[in-house]
Amino acid sequence: MAEEDKERQSRKRRRLTWDVAPSGQPEADERDGEDSEARVPPAPMLRRHVSPPKRDDDRDGHYVFSLGENLTPRYKILGKMGEGTFGRVLECWDRQTREYVAVKVVRSISKYRDAAMIEIDVLQHLAKNDKDDSHCVKMHSWFDYRNHICIVFEKLGPSLFDFLKRNKYSPFPVDLVREFGRQLLESVAYMHDLRLIHTDLKPENILLVSSEFVKLPVCKKTSDETNCRCLPKSSAIKLIDFGSTAYDNQIHSSIVSTRHYRAPEIILGLGWTYPCDIWSVGCILVELCTGEALFQTHENLEHLAMMERVLGPLPEHMIRRADRGAKKYFRRSRLNWPEGAVSRESIRAVRKLDQLKNLVSRHVDSSRSSLVNLLHGLLKFDPSERLTARQALEHPFFKDPT
Ligand SMILES: Nc1ncnc2c1ncn2[C@@H]1O[C@H](COP(=O)(O)OP(=O)(O)OP(=O)(O)O)[C@@H](O)[C@H]1O
After folding, report:
1. Which GO terms describe its molecular function (predicted)?
2. Which residue among 80, 240, 261 is best mutated to probe the pocket of ligand 1, counting the most ligand atoms within 8 A of its Cβ?
3. Which atom of ligand 1 is nearest to the CA of 154?
């Protein structure tokens, strides 16, 4: 199926759940207090903990497991933390180091196995240069088990998307957005210095280091009703999912990034490099401030129309260089919108958006003009004019918070 057909099926991305505790299974926090791990024998006794009998993988090549059993004698499976295209991430107890870990068990399909080996290579490269301030997840080790590449990571908390969802998509306070933005840009700057481009930055791939949160009462302006809102106890975050990371000097595939965070040069087929990550950071920061993905779309023309609505007209020199596939979105050097729209719903979805400044000021005090100025720098259409990660870190939004 063509990418656009697949995407048109739903306006929203498929989203993943956090900590799906199976019925009857204690939640992670309760388990922390359990004494079952105190009964775990020391390393020499590992051989008592055998692997389960070999079973077939499921139709999609995923490893089939039951909770409480072992993934190799060293790792006891406690729960599923997430699932992606590449595989499932399991919460495990490491009997040897006596700590909780997150193990990504990759599907036993050769293209995913190959991609996992590239991810391992990137993770090793990142770790070699890390001075503990890269904000990139740490890989403890990896192994090949029953035709599944397994990558053992430090265990982190929920993703920023999970957190937004849990809060019914109410935005994060701007001071927290500043902290998230700073760390995110530091991790991107670190990667770019190493000539690596993440290409799949999105709130699902940014995890809070800790799962701890506080509940605060929030009074609604319009009524006496008091709701609760959760805030993370710590703002520390780390970047995950280096499965699509590209080396700058490699031949690139033409389409990268999850749709909502995809830069205009990718859609127009102009080629892409480091600035595509910066565009994604811009989209992410808007989402954290407003609670909603900025460009909720699944097709190219609608996506470009949304960009123009929020950021003004696309530069002519980019339109002129658009590749053959993208030329069809334009008539006489301007976007064929709304004439080319597939439905009235699509025209309405674009009209619902507003200029960036207005979108942000609905949620953030208008005195925060430095935030809007930063966002305009991150969301420049022309990739050569976009801020670099290091330039963005010097922006007054981070340097002189008022
Ligand atoms: N170190 C970790 N600690 C806790 N949870 C994690 C960790 N790594 C991954 N997860 C969870 O597992 C999910 C899937 O992980 P990841 O994004 O690495 O998989 P993927 O198959 O590469 O995904 P994608 O389809 O986006 O490429 C994440 O969204 C997150 O919820």
Report:
1. ATP binding; protein serine/threonine kinase activity; protein serine/threonine/tyrosine kinase activity
2. 240
3. 1
304 C-beta closer than 6 A to ligand 1: no
Q: Which two tokens stand for residue 264?
A: 């205009």
Measured from the Cα of 157, ligand 1's closest atom is 4
pLDDT tens-digit map of 375-387? 999 999 999 999 9
ipTM: 0.97
Q: Look up the CATH architecture of domain 8-154.
A: 2-Layer Sandwich (3.30)
- pLDDT reported for residue 13: 41
Domain(s) of CATH 1.10.510.10: residues in the chain:
160-399
At 396 the pLDDT is 95
**Domain 160-399, CATH:** 1.10.510.10
Least confident window among 51-55, 276-280, 289-293: 51-55
Catalytic residue annotation? 200
Closest ligand 1 atom to residue 89 Cα is: 12
Q: Terminus-to-terminus CA distance in the chain, angstroms?
A: 50
Give the number of other CB atoms < 10 A from CB of residue 316: 10
Element (H, E) at 90: strand 87-94
SS (H, E, C) 93-129: EECCCCEEEEEEEECCCHHHHHHHHHHHHHHHHHHHH
Containing 372, the helix (H) or strand (E) segment is: helix 369-378
Q: Report the C-alpha gap between 336 and 350 in whole angstroms.
A: 13
Mean pLDDT of the chain: 87
Residue 104 Cβ contacting ligand 1 at under 6 Å: yes
CA of 89 to the centre of ligand 1 (A): 6
| Residue ranges, CATH 3.30.200.20, the chain | 8-154
Q: Which tens digits make up the pLDDT trace of 21-69?
A: 223 333 333 333 333 333 344 455 566 778 888 899 999 999 999 999 9
Q: Which residue from 246, 370, 356 is spatially nearest to 306, judged by alpha carbons?
A: 356
